[in-house]
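User: Second chain of the day. Same drill as before.
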Amino acid sequence: MRFLFAISLLLALSSCSDLNKSKQLERLEKMNEIVENAAVLLDDNKIENASKMLSISTEYVNRIKGLEDDTIQLEVAYKLDRFKRMHDNLAPALVQYDRFSAAVLAEKEALKKLKGDIDQASGKRHKYDEYLSFEEKKVTELETGITLYVQHKELIVTAYDELHNEINEMLAERFNADEVQ
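Assistant: Same format as last time:
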């Protein structure tokens, strides 16, 4: 009699863990989807021609520094300042991209490992929900960080596209005027 009770209790507990397992795997699948979408967003928002942009903006900023003794219009000063701020933010944005790319790969690997543990019921099964909550927090932070990176990148690229030709022309005019004098 006790043997039958023990077996039925064991079956009841194992069926509960199967229900838990399916919920846990569902949570993992949602996290994988978020990470995949974030990876696609990140790949779609790589700064194209970043080295060219950095080289040109560095040259322009160095030439702008030579104008600091000149009197310039306020509107031009605002554009020059915006361009300098874009230049100052370009290199950190490139570093952010690399860090987020590495973080996406690391998170994919962590989720894959956790899925394997849950599938095989290995490790500390009673801590799976805790591990899942930890990974959910990391995935949310990663998604938020990538979204902010994309907004930041858009500001940088927009500023560069709007200003680099105009500043080049203005610097060329100033340089030519200085040569004539």
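Helices lie at 2-44, 50-65, 74-120, 128-180.

User: Great, on to the next one.
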